[in-house]
Every structure is written in structure tokens, then in C-alpha cells.
Amino acid sequence: MDLQPFHTGVSPYAAGLACRCPRCGRGKLFAGFLSVAPACTQCGLDYSFDDSGDGPVVFIILAAGSLVVGLALWVEISFAPPLWVHAILWTPLVLISTLGLLRPLKATLIALQYAKKAEQGRLDKGEP
User: pTM for the complete prediction?
Assistant: First the structure.
């Protein structure tokens, strides 16, 4: 199995953050908010290899959760505001940080999956 990355001239990070095709960097990756298009409209790359799974969500939950809980704890210790202030402060931050990062992070993981030729793991049974 060839473990060398597949270089196409397009950075997987740039294509992912722009939500563009990992091969050409021009075509749209998504057909909806999170639904991946069937193929690139520019170069025709079939997106059926996409299997980002729950990876983007896990990273976002950990990052956004740490940020919001840390800030909420700091605000509570420093100012001791009423609970309604916490609700007003943290609800928009949670929504923006989770929903705002979900698309670009999913696209980046898909682009990295394409660039590194990641595929389903298989057991080597020693058969030729």
C-alpha cells in the first residue's frame, strides 16, 4: 500500500476551509449545509469516497465546549451575574462556534482524506 500523499497542487487545508473540491479547488463540495455533492462540477471528481463520520463534530464539541465553559466559569467567578445573563451570553457563542465551524472542518477532513488516500482499514490475512 502506497502511503505517500497524493499531490494535486491544491492544499487540503485551503480547499477544506473554502469548502471546495479537494482535487481542483474550484468546484463546490457541498450541495446543502452539510450534505456533500455527488461530484465536482468543475473537474468531475466523484465524492463517494467521503466518510468524515463524526470526526468534525467531536473536534468542535471539544474546542467549543472548552472555550464556552472556560469563559462562563471566568465570568461567574469574576462578576457573579444572574443566570439569565449566562443564557444571553453563551447561547449565541455556542451556536456560532459549533455551526460556524462545522462545514469548514468537515470539508477539511474530506480534503485530507482525499489527499492522503485514506480508505477503509483491512486485515492482512497473509494471502497473495
Answer: 0.82
